[in-house]
Amino acid sequence: MHTMIPAAFAASLALLVAAPVAAQSAGDMTFGLGIGSVMPKSDNGTLAGLDAEVDDDIRPTITFEYFIRDNLGIEILAATPFKHDVSLDGLGEVASVEHLPPTLSLQYHFPTGSAFQPFLGAGITYVTFFSEESDLGDIELDDSWGVSVHAGFDYAVSETGAIRTDVRWMDVDSDVTLDGVDIGTAEIDPLVVGVSYIWKF
């Protein structure tokens, strides 16, 4: 009898640990707050005949996801404006620009039955550029539409809370003009690495 009590307790504890990570059900919603690092690829195209480089930036992010079916959700990503410096080979830093990259994704969360729950998603990113500044003249970057892919995992810490680590790739290209003259296309195509806390309700 005494040997059965620890075994029963261990089984009950295992059920309690597994309970917070039950599969996401249709109608569930999640809200996330975190930080994201936008890291453009190393080769950012040619502007005015010179190789361009766009630097990284880190900002707060917000996500909201609604589950249209069990384990299948639609997520919107938002953030405060990211700011990037733009450099040209031989000239150094020549411009700065801010942008917002709202992203809509369809995501599948794999029901593992454990605290660790990976997910995969794909969607569309719209990037709007603003506050462009340059000592070279009036610089403008066109807004961009592109596909995005998303992967990551949640680690449950309670019935309604989880820590999320994720990475996105976004197809972001923008035509650039200087004083109204086309000078090339900025090929940004960043990875966005994030960490956030997710609330389920």
How would you characterize the overall build of this protein?
- 7% of the residues lie in helices and 65% in strands.
- It has 201 residues and is mainly beta.
- It has a single domain, classed as Porin.
- The strands form 2 sheets. It has an 8-stranded antiparallel beta barrel with strand order 1-4-5-8-9-11-12-15.
- The N terminus is likely disordered.
Blueprint (SSEs and pairs):
Layout: H1 4-18, E1 29-39, E2 46-47, E3 50-54, E4 57-69, E5 72-79, E6 82-88, E7 92-100, E8 103-109, E9 116-134, E10 139-141, E11 144-156, E12 161-170, E13 173-178, E14 181-187, E15 191-200
Key attributes of the depicted protein:
about 200 residues, mainly beta, Porin, three-stranded antiparallel sheet, 15 strands, about 5% helix, elongated, disordered N terminus
Percentage of residues in strands: over 45%
Q: Give the overall shape.
A: elongated
Structural class: mainly beta
Distance between the termini: 41 Å
| CATH topology value | Porin
Write down the domain tally.
Answer: 1
Question: Helical proportion?
Answer: under 10%
Stretches with pLDDT under 50, minimum 5 residues: 1-20
CATH class, named Mainly Beta
Biggest sheet overview: 8 strands, antiparallel, barrel
Can you summarize this structure?
The protein has 1 helix and 15 strands; from the N terminus they run αβββββββββββββββ. It is mainly beta. It has a single domain, classed as Porin.
